[in-house]
Amino acid sequence: MDLGYKNKNRETEKLQSMSAQIIDGKTIAEEVNRETAEEVAELKEKKGIVPGLAVILVGEDPASQVYVRRKVKMCEQLGIYSKKVVLPTETSQNELLQVIDELNHDPSIHGILVQSPPPPQIDEAAVVEAVDPRKDVDCFHPENVGRMLLGERTGFLPCTPWGVTVLLEKCGISTRGKHAVVLGRSNIVGKPMAALLLGKGASGDATVTVCHSRTENLAEITRSADIVIAAIGKPEFLKGSMIRDDAVVIDVGINRVEDASRPKGYRLAGDVEYETAAEKASWITPVPGGVGPMTIAMLMKNTVRACKMAMNEKECREN
Fold it and tell me: Is 71 considered catalytic here?
């Protein structure tokens, strides 16, 4: 008897019985990836250029190894050249910076990503600033963050927040004039997510509240939101009782929760208590299969953007 298949059937039936429409991040990411693959093919055919992404992994963190493999595999699927650089756990700060410098000057590499978190001896802020802003496809460098905050949308955008805005656009969910509440103030998701929602134009023009660990009357605030984006790293923190009827719920979190009934001894859960939230929400992202696939899809988009920017810069110098 295939218990895994039966469990999947039960989960599917459970999802279908809830009132919220599911935002299928996997399907939308596949659509974005098809568009990216077409761009890559056009660059190869018309310009003879192949976008290149370098991924640096320091150490042997199992989760980081999985993420790196996924990124390299996606590059292969889309026709993007990938270079994986694996460094030992004891790598020094200077050694890592030297590798980054070499990649900064490598014309075949258009995007550089240093997998986070690095070992404790590495100053992550210094690493971020060492990456050439023109190759900063994570959009972590202060220069690119500043451009984003000033409303620049044609350069790099942070992958996960950008992915969220694309999910909203593809589902026809307008943010204009809506009250959006972002749970979490991290530099990777919370802050840039708020900035994109505040910006002018598509997936912007929202009134934004950012909540965090010191926020008082949190449930009162989340219940006032048209759109709630949870990115705090606490499994199933946002309950259905904390959202208003017909709210849009975007779950950025992905957490391992112990579950003896599962073959691996754990299950994946988001920052939202899915079952109770789905009973009240109008739209909701599942975990997994919601925001996660979009993050890698937008990283690939940024890599192609980096390639095009480098190509335009070269043409300007030659002319």
Answer: yes
